[in-house]
Amino acid sequence: MGKDDVKLLSMWASPFCMRVKVALAEKDIPYEEILETDLMNDKSDLLVKSNPVHKQVPVLLHDGKPVAESTNIITYLDEAWPAKPLLPDCAYEKSRARFWADYIDRKVYPAGRAIWSSKEQDEVEAAKSNFLEIMMYLDGTLGDKDYFNGDTFGFVDILLIGLTSWFPAYEKYGDFKLEDHYPKLAAWITRSWARETVSESLTNPEKITNFVSMMRKMYGLE
Ligand SMILES: N[C@@H](CCC(=O)N[C@@H](CS)C(=O)NCC(=O)O)C(=O)O
Question: What positions does the domain GST N-terminal occupy (predicted)?
Fold first, then answer.
């Protein structure tokens, strides 16, 4: 395992990169992070060569071989480094984890983005309702458990926690507090951030909120 050469093509504000960093930390896999400096105007040749279809971060390079798309990368890590498994063993539980992974991937980031990128108040309200409805389903499946699969922090936790350093920006521009609506889900965020693998992998939410404010100015929203 020590002989593996692992690199992560990454960008500091990307929630999709953050979730891969959490997975690497949970699995104790040493890696080198290679940061893109300007994803909008000047992607590196290495990124374009490694992910020619989407040209997006994150990309994992394992012994020089590229793996793209964050959920696919985390699934790959779990298969290539089977110690400390992230996905449950049982086929049924695994299918449930994949169901929620797919739900999170389709819904959470676009719904959050709609909150801070909307201009008119009625659009912001609609985006906020949509985001909170998505959170309602996630809160429901979490229930009274510590983590999505029970007692241990795993696949679904990683996919969702990676997105949460953007949540304070959604709360700010949507004028709500997640904990007022879903205290158990909010407690799950606090519990998960208390893990070193999470706090050391995720970007400080304040930095993200400043980044969002800068983008809002760029789009003429404030
Ligand atoms: N579905 C992808 C999304 C990755 C993504 O949206 N990456 C963004 C940064 S957050 C990116 O590289 N954007 C540059 C671009 O789309 O040109 C994943 O899960 O990895």
Answer: 4-85
